[in-house]
Specification:
By secondary structure, the protein is of the alpha/beta class. Helices cover 50% and strands 14% of the residues. The longest helix has 28 residues, at 36-63. It is found in: Cytoplasm.
Length: 786
């Protein structure tokens, strides 16, 4: 143990602060005969400095797994937007919100084996005693005010992330107080006094994992790379690949599934593909067409397709969708909700796709929503969707700008740097609205969304874009003293223009980033959607030799890199098109203001690339966050462009700790920068269009590599980023409550206590039932994680 600590003193040289101590320790010791006391004195100085450095390293590393007491927590304001709704619209929004909140609980079961139990433990503590009342119990249990605040922040973090792993970065977080003190608090609580055996059993079921920071448990991942509940504990990458082949062969989507590897059956490997559904019977039932469940032999293995995952929660989702349907504004909304309910009842992605088609047709609704197993960022294989549901109200003023961008899309698309054969045959003008979020249930809240994610629908039928205005308003506000790695001269401009520039980037990213580009497909009948004999690869000049076949999709084909690669492509589109004066004028930026928006947008991107190093895990050489990996890749591309476009230097801060400075030469953005992004963006699109998995992996993984060699020591810079990182903000969301024939909005303060209270009141009517079912669902799967 001591040797490991001592070794880390020398390894901490990589921090950039102990090089002098290292020199003193190695070459500064006297080499000639002299006073023994002098030698020991010198050694003492060396060891003292190295110990200080090691403490700095350990503090930095430990801080990754705690949420700081001063973490930003803001209330999402939707008061005015909700007030302007009609009584019918309020009821529609209410039942959609209830559906989303119940479904969002599935994320606990999708995150880690212990998340659901921790959630129930916290709910029982705070339902009996609000945070202010529980504080006296904490004092009696021996917690300091700082330790109690740390507990409240942890609880708020678990609610905000719907689990004990950060939704942005997939890193575990644990309470920043001793385990014994948290146990003492639980034992002092009213919940424990009322039900001691139940509370003790709850504590015993989750307390070990709640605090554990064993290497595998520090982050989400498959096999020995981390924790996942999308796959049973005995699954590895090869199992995930085999399962994907099976699903493709049966035209089954992975979005609403989990994979469990069972005991061998007659010498054959055996797997269960479990669909999320309220119905638990595997045979066809009333109201369903043809069941896809059953036993299948595939490549000398046995696959059982079953259903009933999250059954209780899916039933609650469907019930509330049916209630919302009674208050729908039009036929498209009714049909949409019917199909969604069908999907969650029977586990049918085809029904969800049909509902998404009606959703696309529902143009310009006052109350916008979407729900389902949507984003695949947290599946280590990149195919399974995490549950999310949102309900929001249109911000008409901001939506007008996005509507202008949509109307300009057909003019802007030809500006993108790939041949027209690589663009969709027809751009289907989508809805693009700015929304004030009322409800966003899931593991986190994004700034913008482009959905649905089904390739076949996006390519030929359309999609929608939304920008979440009240999220943008609070999420990206920045204090000058917390701005890292920027020149002092850039900071004031950054604070002033980051919001407006990010609005432009989000708009371009979602509409023309995710909304652009064609996939070359050969369908099951052998027909191509492109002229196979005439289309040429612009990179090589040769004929196209690879494409998507049959049921292959972008996610299934590119699997582990698909999410980040696509985010990188969309970010590059935003950078490239923000240089267009017409785009800037749409958002109201002209002349000098337009120049500042462009500069800060590009500066923000390269700074984000540096900050992205926080989300790289050196031990497994893996990235934990798709967007931040994408931004690091873009930083690498722009550094590679040279000519002084981007400069990144390590330094020592005013506090004596390692620091860094990143600068951007604004005079070269339109020349050197544009040319670099143009080349890279064309490569990204050609590879995506042609299903060139091998070329895509080589390109993207090459730029994603983080090492200590080359012109920049990114591993050392990562440690500097960790040392100076700022925790991501959390949001407090309102609840809705039916009172008589009306719906009232219940809001909470922007604090840890407010966030906790919002969750305890969210399920107030059936809390015990919900908690019992969560524990039952968790218990059923517990043996699968061993």
């Amino acid at each position: 143990m001591y040797f490991a600590v001592h070794a880390s003193c020398f390894n901490s040289l990589r921090l950039g602060v102990t090089s002098n101590a290292f020199r003193l320790g190695v070459i500064g010791l006297p080499t000639t005969t002299g006073s023994t006391g002098k030698i020991f004195s010198t050694v003492s100085v060396v060891l003292k400095r190295q110990l200080q450095a090691s403490r700095l390293l350990f503090t930095m590393v430990d801080s990754q797994y705690f949420l700081p007491n001063d973490i930003g927590i803001s209330a999402l304001d939707c008061t005015e937007a909700f007030r302007l709704l009609s009584p019918r619209e309020k009821l529609y929004a209410h039942y959609l919100s209830r559906s989303a909140w119940y479904g969002g609980l599935a994320v606990l079961l999708q995150t880690s084996p212990e998340s659901a139990s921790i959630f129930v433990l916290l709910q029982r503590l705070f339902r009996k005693q609000p945070a202010a009342q529980l504080e006296s119990m904490a004092t009696a249990a021996g917690l300091s005010p700082e330790e109690y605040q740390a507990f409240l922040v942890y609880a708020a973090g678990l609610y905000a992330n719907m689990g004990n792993y950060k939704s942005f970065g997939d890193t575990k977080f644990i309470p920043n107080l001793p385990k014994e003190k948290l146990k003492a608090l639980v034992w002092q609580s009213q919940a424990f006094q009322d039900s001691p055996s139940e509370m003790e059993a709850l504590w015993d079921s989750c307390s070990t994992l709640l605090f554990s920071l064993e290497d595998q448990q520090k982050q989400l991942g498959l096999g020995d790379k981390g924790v996942t509940t999308y796959f049973s504990g005995n699954c590895c990458l090869e199992d995930a690949e085999l399962a994907q082949k099976f699903l493709d062969s049966k035209n089954l989507s992975a979005y609403n599934t989990r994979l469990f590897k069972n005991k061998s059956e007659e010498g054959k490997a055996s797997y269960e593909v479990r669909l999320a559904s309220a119905v638990q019977k595997d045979c066809a039932v009333d109201g369903e067409g043809e069941s896809r469940c059953g036993r299948y032999d595939f490549e000398d293995c046995v696959f059982m397709v079953s259903r009933g995952d999250y059954a209780y929660l899916m039933k609650k989702v469907s019930e509330n969708l049916e209630k919302a349907k009674n208050h729908a504004a039009n036929e498209n909304q009714k049909r949409m909700l019917e199909e969604y309910a069908q999907s969650f009842t029977f586990g049918s992605i085809e029904a969800h796709k049909e509902g998404s088609r009606f959703w696309i047709k529902d143009k310009g609704p006052i109350v916008e929503s979407y729900i389902g197993f949507i984003e695949s960022y947290r599946d280590p294989f990149g195919s399974r969707g995490e549950f999310e549901g949102f309900v929001a109200v249109v911000n008409k003023a901001m939506s007008e700008r996005f509507a202008k961008l949509v109307s300009s899309a057909e003019v802007l698309l030809p500006e993108l740097p790939w041949p027209k054969d690589f663009e969709k045959d027809r751009f289907l003008l989508p809805d693009f609205t700015s929304l004030d979020v009322l409800t966003f249930a899931g593991s986190g809240i994004p700034a913008g969304i482009n959905i649905p994610n089904y390739d076949d629908i996006r390519q030929s039928e359309g999609f929608k874009n939304v920008s979440l205005g009240n999220v943008l308003a609070v999420a990206y506000a920045t204090q000058k003293d917390k701005l890292t790695f920027l020149d002092e001269e850039d900071k004031d401009m950054y604070i002033k223009w980051k919001g407006p520039s990010f609005e432009v980037q989000v708009g371009l990213h979602e509409l023309l980033g995710h909304g652009s580009g064609k996939l070359f497909v050969q369908d099951e009948k052998g027909n191509f959607n492109f002229e196979q004999d005439n289309v040429r690869n612009p990179e090589t000049g040769e004929q196209i030799t690879t494409w998507y076949k049959g049921n292959e999709t972008w996610d299934s084909k590119f699997s582990t890199i698909s999410c980040s690669y696509e985010e990188c492509r969309a970010e590059c589109v935003g950078l490239y098109l923000c240089l267009n004066k017409h785009v800037l004028s749409i958002f109201g930026h002209e002349d000098e203001d337009a120049k500042e928006v462009v500069y800060i947008n590009w500066l923000n991107m390269v700074r984000a690339g540096l900050l992205g190093l926080e989300f790289f895990t050196p031990e497994s050489k893996s990235w934990r966050q798709a967007h931040m990996q994408a931004r690091f890749v873009i930083l690498r591309v722009l550094l590679e462009a040279g000519e002084g476009l981007v400069n990144l230097k390590e330094s020592t801060g005013k506090d004596g700790r390692p620091d860094a400075l990143i600068t951007l030469d604004r005079s070269k953005v339109h020349t050197v920068g544009k040319a670099a992004i143009e080349r890279f963006l064309c490569k990204l699109q050609v590879i995506k269009s042609t299903a060139d998995v091998e070329g895509g992996r080589a390109l993207y993984e090459g730029y994603s590599a983080v090492s200590d060699t080359g012109s920049h020591n990114f591993l050392r810079l990562r440690e500097t980023v960790l040392l100076r990182k700022e925790a991501r903000k959390m949001f407090v969301q309102a609840n809705t409550r039916v009172k008589g024939e009306s719906v009232e909005l219940v809001e909470y303060e922007g604090s840890a206590a407010g966030l906790i209270r919002s969750f305890t009141e969210r399920f107030a009517d059936d809390a015990e039932e919900v908690e019992a079912h969560l524990l039952e669902l968790n218990k059923r799967d517990a043996p699968c994680w061993c």
